[in-house]
């Protein structure tokens, strides 16, 4: 134990687990395997039928985005955002979250002949495991207690929020948050540029996956923005500007409920 003298700053305390990196890696591996096994049990119906998804348009849209990235990347990467929808509009992939990182991860699977729906389900499964492992890392770095880290990862990976948004693929990739906080903690604790860079990367990655949530929380956009390819705007009865929502035939009727104050 370090002996302190008056006027001398205390020596930084290095936890015992930090002195044995291999032990930390083994602990993370064991925890990840446990989360993987629990995920198989919790999602057993989905894992038994890898060629099916919940009956909703969101999973189908996510599968299309993964498949489009895999299709367009080797053929015409410069036109990656020119999705084959809303023709002749350009950059239609940017109308929603482009899911570039999941698309890059799923691309080798799809190129190898794995159906896009199976690649989607595998990434869905991996998101639960990664969420638990990331929270395990964060809590262990804060408390140096493996049991607490294990419980925190379990709660975070299988929180009710994740099942409320089970069909929203982007919102399941929550593991960037604990990774960002873990890197920030290491930055403040050790003062290393590498940890600061990782903090910025993890925050940026999480922000890229927050676009879908932001779009769902904002019913309307500021003046000049639009949710329609036709860039259609209408005027409220009191003269205020409204952003068109829905198809051209219904946008005038729907916009009366979404008037910009």
Task: Give the CA-CA distance, first to last residue.
Answer: 64 Å
Q: Can you give the helix content as a percent range?
A: 55-70%
- Strand arrangement within the widest β-sheet reads 1-2
Order of helices and strands: HHHHHHHHHHEEH
Q: How many extended strands?
A: 2
The average pLDDT value, as a whole number, equals 76
Q: Please identify the oligomeric state.
A: single chain
Task: Provide a descriptive summary of the structure in words.
This protein is mostly helical and 261 residues long. It folds into two domains: 16-216, no CATH class; 224-255, no CATH class. The chain has eleven helices and two strands, in the order ααααααααααββα. It has helices at residues 21-42, 44-48, 57-72, 100-111, 116-143, 146-157, 160-164, 176-190, 193-209, 211-217, 248-255, and strands spanning 233-235, 241-243. Strands 1-2 form a two-stranded antiparallel ribbon. α1 packs across α5 (116-143), α4 (100-111) packs across α5 and α5 (116-143) packs antiparallel against α6. The protein is globular and about 55 Å long. Residues 1-19 and 216-261 have low confidence and may be disordered.
């Amino acid at each position: 134990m370090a002996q302190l003298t008056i006027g001398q700053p205390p020596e930084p305390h290095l936890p015992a687990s930090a002195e044995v990196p291999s032990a930390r890696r083994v602990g993370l591996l064991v925890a990840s395997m446990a989360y993987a096994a629990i995920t198989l049990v919790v999602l057993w119906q989905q894992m038994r039928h890898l060629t099916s998804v919940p009956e909703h348009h969101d999973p189908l849209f996510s599968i299309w985005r993964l498949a489009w990235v895999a299709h367009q990347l080797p053929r015409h990467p410069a036109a990656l955002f020119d999705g084959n929808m809303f023709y002749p509009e350009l950059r239609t992939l940017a109308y929603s979250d482009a899911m570039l990182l999941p698309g890059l991860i799923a691309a080798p699977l799809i190129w190898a002949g794995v159906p896009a729906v199976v690649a989607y389900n595998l990434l869905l499964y991996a998101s639960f495991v990664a969420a638990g492992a990331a929270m395990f890392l964060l809590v262990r770095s804060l408390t140096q207690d493996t049991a607490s880290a294990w419980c925190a990862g379990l709660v975070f990976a299988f929180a009710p929020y994740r099942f409320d948004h089970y069909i929203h693929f982007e919102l399941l990739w929550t593991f960037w948050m604990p990774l960002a906080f873990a890197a920030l903690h290491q930055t403040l604790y050790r003062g290393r540029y590498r940890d600061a860079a990782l903090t910025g990367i993890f925050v940026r990655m999480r922000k890229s996956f927050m676009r879908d949530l932001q779009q769902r929380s904002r019913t309307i956009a500021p003046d000049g923005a639009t949710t329609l390819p036709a860039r259609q705007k209408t005027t409220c009865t009191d003269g205020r500007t409204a952003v068109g929502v829905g198809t051209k035939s219904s946008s005038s009727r729907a916009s009366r409920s979404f008037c910009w104050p």
